[in-house]
Amino acid sequence: MRWIFPLLLALVGMGAPAVQAGPWARAPGEGFLSFSQNMSTSAEALASGTEQISAYSSIYAELGLGRRLTLGLDFGRGEFTDEAILFLRRTLTRPDARIQVGVDLGYGERRVDVLGESQLARIGLSVGRGFDAAALDWLPMGMTGGWVGLDAIAVYDLTRDERRWKVEATVGLRPTERVSLMLQVIAEEWPGAEVSFGLNPSVVFQIREGTSIELGARTSLGDDPRIGLELGLWHQF
Description:
Blueprint: H1 4-13, E1 31-42, H2 43-48, E2 53-66, E3 69-77, E4 81-91, E5 99-112, E6 116-132, E7 145-157, E8 162-176, E9 179-189, E10 196-208, E11 211-221, E12 226-236
Antiparallel strand pairs: 1-2, 1-12, 2-3, 3-4, 4-5, 5-6, 6-7, 7-8, 8-9, 9-10, 10-11, 11-12
C-alpha cells in the first residue's frame, strides 16, 4: 500500500457536493476529503459490561476530472486489516437530469494479519436524486433541501477468489444550510458470513465554509451484532 499516501496528498493538493459519495459528477478540480473514526463493540460485550472496543479508521477522497469523470480513493484500517481501493466513476446522466446515475470501476489491495496481501477489483453502481425546499414543503419542519441515494458495490478478491457486496441506501435532509441529517440503511455480505444489516443515523454540522463535522451512530445486525459511534471530518475544496 505504498502508493496510497502519495496519491492522497495529490488529491488534497488539487482543487463538491454536500454528500461524500454518490453518482453526482464533480466539476474539474473540485474535491472532497473525509477522515472518519469508528469505535464499536459487540452487543454481547455491551450487555455484560466487558470492555471490548474495536476501532476502524477511514479516509475517503474524490477529485473531479471533467467529462463527468471522478477519481476516488477509499482507504480503511482496522485492528487486523488494511484496505485501499482506487476507483474511477463515470456519471452517465447529464448534470441537469433529475435522477443521476453513475458507474465505477476500481482496483486495490487488502492486507490481513497472518493471511498477507491480496489484490481487489471493484465495480459499483450509484443512483441519486436531489430535492429543493419546495419539494419538501410537506414535511412538518422546514427544509432547505435534501437527497436520496442508492449505492451498490461488489468487490472481488483476485488472490483468494472470494466475493463480497454491499448495498447502501441514504436519505439526507437539510433543516438549515449548515446542518444535514442523514439516515443510511446498509446490507452487506462477506465470504463465509451471513448477510448483515446496518442502520446508521448521523448529523453533519458545517463549522466553516467547506468544512463539516459528522457525528453518527453505527449498528450492525448479523452473525456478530455491533453498536458504535463515528466521528468524521469532511472538507470540500
